[in-house]
UniProtKB/TrEMBL annotation:
This is RHS repeat-associated protein. The keyword Repeat applies. It comes from Planomonospora venezuelensis. It comes from the Bacteria. Residues 4-150 form the Teneurin-like YD-shell domain. Keywords: Repeat.
Length: 522
């Protein structure tokens, strides 16, 4: 469009360079009616129409002119629906509007260069003379504007839809003016990524042995401080095997407290069968700096437990001082009394109260186990909350004793017997801890049951199982592997499959706000 004539009046249009961006509108005699200031990308920055003052322009992500203002005040504003129909306006109606293009003052049509667009209809007033591939299928319709997706698409030529509006799925929201802003979600994701377990180990430059020695052995090769021992039963970091050291660094995250990191080291050392027996003259020298003075004798635990079982038991030892509520005989009696008396509401309230108290009491244990396996603490706490309130330990033991008396404790049927506050079948726990459940001995089963009945190791084993389920579906170690959808799938698969599992997952996800509060400090 180069000119517009109505009656005896005429408008002439001047464009910026070789672009389709209007820079000046003049009358038939050449007198300037309007001027438009633009950035290097053609984005509209200002306008000076008629006898008014020059005004700054505000565009939305679609490029629509939604407001003009002086240095101190809003002058006018316009709102559009997705397809360009004006839904609200105040002040003066401007020549440039939807998509930042010229709007005919008589017909309301918008000039999109090759064709005119009728706002509100989602369609051009004429057929496109370009033939586009029918992918997406909306392109087969030569009248459709922006492939019927005006929230993310524009048509700056009248021939073809482009999608310059990043909707945030890549971490940024960008407008047609090329200005982008990082989304809050992406900022959170990036923060989570750079503090995720093992980030420094896998992505950092790494300290050499010589540099570690020069720094007095205070830092690991990932640049982080060496973990302190929780007690004399835990091996010194530099005395342990390279495998144990590297495993710990692959789990390290600066989001954990020093106490939690020390416990993580103790558990990692136990997993790798690294223990301290007595202190005597063994010197470890690191690099040319000559770090020395560590002394101990390394021993292994040859008791038949799997590596993960050793880790679970060490985790329980480290958190032994944390005590939570117990589903005691008195509570069980009261619960039965309520149920038999038809006071179901009171019975449910009793269970809910126990659940809340238990999760809150073991909040640090839950967060520690979740961090060790890289699973969200909210999901672990959510599963724990859902599983709690079942049979007390004495009832678990009674069930097992009865089965032993009947002589069929070690058949397949018994491996489905569940134990622990976070209820788990013996067979599932055995696989989670790295045993072959088809060859499980009585001693191994006894040890597994004991671990399930210990709250801390019970939590640890549950966290490992959640990590195993996630690993089945996901191969990435970045935080993107734990979307809300993935968390729901993991919660569902914890329970099995079918409608009951779906309902279980819904409850776990629905309780996120509650368990988040329960595992918070205080």
């Amino acid at each position: 469009m180069t000119s517009r004539t109505k009656g005896t009046s005429q408008q002439r249009f001047t464009y910026s360079g070789l672009s389709n961006d209007i820079s000046v509108i003049a009358d038939g005699s050449g007198a300037i009616q309007a001027k438009y200031g633009r950035d290097v990308a053609g984005g509209l920055l200002s306008m000076h129409e008629g006898g008014s003052l020059a005004l700054a322009v505000m565009n939305d992500l679609h490029g629509d002119v939604v407001a003009t203002f002086t240095g101190t005040a809003l002058v006018d504003s316009t709102a559009y629906d997705p397809f360009g129909r004006i839904t609200h306006t105040s002040g003066t109606k401007r020549s440039l509007g939807y998509q930042g293009e010229y709007t005919d003052p008589d017909s309301g049509k918008v000039n999109m260069h090759a064709r005119w667009y009728q706002p509100g209809t989602g369609a051009f007033t004429s057929r496109d003379d370009w033939t586009l591939t029918p992918d997406p299928s909306a392109q087969a319709n030569r009248y459709t504007y922006a492939n019927a997706s005006p929230l993310t698409g524009i048509d700056p030529t009248g021939h073809e839809t482009i999608n310059p509006i990043n909707d945030g799925t890549q971490g940024y929201i960008c407008g047609v003016d090329g200005i982008c802003s990082e989304t809050f979600v992406h900022a959170q994701w990036w923060s989570a990524y750079v503090t995720s377990p093992g980030y420094d180990y896998y992505n950092g430059p790494g300290f050499s042995d010589e540099e570690i020695g020069r720094l007095g052995g205070k830092y690991m090769s990932n640049g982080r401080l060496v973990p302190k021992k929780t007690d004399n039963q835990v091996i010194d970091f530099w005395l342990a095997s390279k495998e144990a050291q590297n495993d710990f660094m692959s789990k390290y995250t600066p989001t954990l407290s020093n106490k939690s990191l020390s416990i993580m080291w103790a558990v990692t050392a136990a997993y790798h069968n690294q223990y301290v027996e007595v202190v005597e003259g063994v010197c470890v020298k690191i690099g040319d700096g000559g770090v020395c003075g560590y002394s101990a004798t390394i021993k292994s635990a040859n008791d038949g437990r799997s590596a993960m079982h050793r880790a679970a038991d060490e985790f329980a030892r480290q958190w032994a001082r944390v005590k939570g509520p117990v589903w005691s005989d008195d509570i069980a009696e009261l619960y039965i009394k309520f149920k038999l008396g038809g006071a179901n509401e009171k019975a449910e309230k009793l269970v809910q109260s126990f659940k809340r108290a238990w999760v809150h009491a073991y909040r640090d244990v839950i967060k520690g186990a979740a961090a060790y396996f890289g699973v969200p603490a909210l999901i672990l706490a959510g599963v724990a909350f859902e599983e709690l309130g079942g049979d007390p330990n004495w009832f678990d033991t009674a069930k097992r004793t009865a089965k032993e008396a009947l002589g069929f404790f070690w058949n397949k049927r018994d491996l489905t017997t569940s134990f622990g506050n976070i209820s788990m079948q013996i067979g599932v726990a055995a696989e989670t801890l790295g045993y072959d459940k088809s060859k499980l001995s009585k001693n191994e089963a006894d040890a597994i049951v004991k671990s399930l009945q210990n709250p801390a190791s019970n939590i640890f084993i549950a966290a490992k199982r959640l990590a195993d389920i996630n690993a089945h579906w996901n191969r990435t170690s970045t935080p993107s592997g734990w979307t809300s959808q993935r968390a729901r799938v993991v919660a569902r698969d914890w329970n099995g499959s079918g409608p009951d599992a779906e309902n279980y997952a819904d409850r776990v996800m629905r309780n996120q706000w509650l368990v988040g509060w329960l595992i918070s400090e205080g």
